[in-house]
Fold these 2 entries.
Entry 1:
Amino acid sequence: MRLRQVEVFQAILQTGSISGAAKLLCISQPAVSKTLMHAEQQLGFPLFQRARGKLYPTPEALILQKEVGALFEHLQRVKRLARGLRHQQDRPLHLEVSPALAQSILPGALSNWRADYPSLPCSLAMHHTTEIVQRLCLHEADLGLTLQKTDHPGVVVEALAYGYLTAIAPAGWWSAAELAEDLPIEALEGAPFVGLTNTGTLWTELASLLDNGGVSPQVLTTVQTYKLACDLVALGHGLSVVDPFTAQSPREGTVQLRAIRPRTPVYLYAIHAVDSPLSLAAQQLIAVIRRMARDMGMTLCP
């Protein structure tokens, strides 16, 4: 089947009629009918049967549907990639950021960056790393920021800075002497705890630390984001463990912080498509983020 025939086949499957497929594809009904006829002639069997004014796929068409659907989805990805390349010069700086960074270091970084780029449009979307990489490879985004390293061959990954997995507690929970030291993972045994339903890398690493130490905190509340965990801890809901960027976000003394022992590094990564060099504006934003990370007490990567 030719690509046009695939498009027509998929459109009829979606709409159930020649007229609906023509409208969906923005072509004439005779063009749809002709393309369908040629496809059936080449295949040697009918693809649709008419009943009660609608077209229904034949058993043979249903067998084809799965493979054709995958091919059609790939074709749509190619079209999206082409659109991204065509409008690359016209679109704003498009950022794809993991939720933890979007709710911690990024707002301040964007404010500082805006001083140098007061009129440059910028858009920000929150996604997890897998989707960030996909959008970068499709040229639907310019720069990604995440706490999870990726080895996808289509992107360039740069480690900007790192801190350590951090335990947080309500103000006054630990003494000044305790705050000067890391928190042994064993200290979480039986402690009231705000857990995460997140299945990301950081939470997996924490789960491994707890399992290896035979430690079981008393999980009373579970949430979906590190920021919400911090907010609940500040209100006295117990302890939690979050990434260092969320932990160091301004909270006016409402939470206390201690690095978990054994120390577990958490890196901030900038990623972009391997075939799409960063613009000057994107490079400047990265420089601002590095400065802010240093000011938050993180260690800068070379």
Entry 2:
Amino acid sequence: MAVSPADVKKLRDKTGAGMLDCKNALVEANGDFAEAEKVLKKAGLAKADKKSGRATTEGNVFTRITDNKAVILELTCETDFVASNETFQATGAKLVETVIEKGLTEVTDELNAMVKEAIAVLNENMSVKRFSVMDIADDEAVVDYIHAGGKIGVLIKVKCDSAATAAKEEVKAFAFDAALHAAAFNPTFLNKDSVDAKYIADQEEIFTAQTLALGKPENVAAGIVKGKMSKHIAQICFVDQKFVKDDKITVKQAADQAGKAVGGSVELTDYIYFQVGEEI
């Protein structure tokens, strides 16, 4: 049957599919819009399966925070152009919302189905590369920060002496500044206690070899290596780094100041940093 350009446009506006695909779907469905949508969906899902092998190195990071949970998710695609598309953005928002609502801890068939529907519209391969969930206690506060047009995302958690302290705007302001810091410097570890023992051993071996190569006696080299390790740990541990908003103090000292300012205590206890395309 013949279909009008107006009907084709109407279907395209509703589904986001191409004009020719919309026209063919309407013809196959004999002008029935609901049936035409089903035709497009079936065709799109078939296309999605064919595109599953394509590399997805672009994308965005999405976050969602509720009273007791926070999620950060990386959704990838083939091109930066699609990453900025409204359908892609809406899919990312729907994905993090579903993770929170369903209490998900891993990628499920339901999430993959949402992605396939977006592939059908956008005509590019897409994938939920990863996501992480933070639990939030009453005496904790979590803030998020999206940087570089969605290419970097951060969640920051602080623990306070009470729920009242955690709810204060000054505490959330510190947490947000800490998120800016993480986005800028991507700390390797949270604090000294979280540094992997093998990492410390490997780094000490490197510093020892470098020091001995300079002709330093072993007893002297030991002291030099200790000093180098102390400086190195401070550089890679979040709480010991110079604070992005004031390089005269560390992140921990900034947290202490934030707590003192509101008559309580504030401690940075966790963070998650996602960057689109990074190796995991």
